[in-house]
Amino acid sequence: MKNNKVLITGGTAGIGRAISILLAKHGYQIFLIGRSRKKMNDLLQDLEELNLADQFVFSLTDVTDLTIFEKQIMDWENQYGTFDVLINNAGIGYDTVLGKSIKDIQYLVNTNLLSYMWLAGHIGEQMIINGIEGYIIQIGSMSATTKDAESSGYVATKSGIQGFSEALRKELNPKNIRVALIEPGLCGSDMQSTSPKEEIVLQEKLEMLKAEDIADLVLTILRLDPRIDVCELKVKPLKQII
């Protein structure tokens, strides 16, 4: 497989977890960053049962800890070489900015936007230097389009990802590097307040996506002919009217 080294942030739960498992099943080597030790251990246990653990390299890192985050990426590059695929997926849920402290908002922006910007910029530059015709896939949200009330903080970061991804694509496409933005609607994940049982009911009613649905789209994008660049993909459950 030509493009086989995949770096993914926020990979221990929800959409990131589903993507990492699916890609590993199809032969990709996964370099996974997550911040929860419990979720990391739960994922590792499942990977052992699936005989996929050997295809993973893990780092327990909070992407807002900028010094450690940057060092981890550099260490991996020095040991394994430049990544072929970046999947920016780290994110936290957030509601309104009303009444929030500046440190609280800073943590949101550092997680949901700054990590995307720095990592995509760094990996994109390394792809150019090393002649890698790679893929950068950004996981955003349809909140950037719907701009719902009571979610001004979250909307700000996802709107930032949307604009950033479009401009970055125009910068990197001439270098044969593809940039795709996937914006899911309501999707079952740890970010939601719903329980797993409630999510199953909503999914059966076609009102909520599964994390595996987004993973399928990522794999599809990576399998497309190199002449194709999926610019922006909005995907929602059929019965979510937005």
Topology:
Layout: E1 5-9, H1 14-25, E2 29-34, H2 37-50, E3 56-60, H3 66-80, E4 85-88, H4 102-129, E5 135-139, H5 143-146, H6 152-172, E6 178-184, H7 196-204, H8 211-223, E7 232-235
Parallel strand pairs: 1-2, 1-4, 2-3, 4-5, 5-6, 6-7
Helix pairs in contact: 1-8, 4-6
Task: Write structural notes for this entry.
The protein has eight helices and seven strands; from the N terminus they run E-H-E-H-E-H-E-H-E-H-H-E-H-H-E. By secondary structure, it is of the alpha/beta class. Strands 3-2-1-4-5-6-7 form a seven-stranded parallel beta sheet, with helices on both faces. Helix 1 (14-25) packs across helix 8 (211-223) and helix 4 (102-129) packs parallel to helix 6. The model has no long low-confidence stretch (mean pLDDT 95).
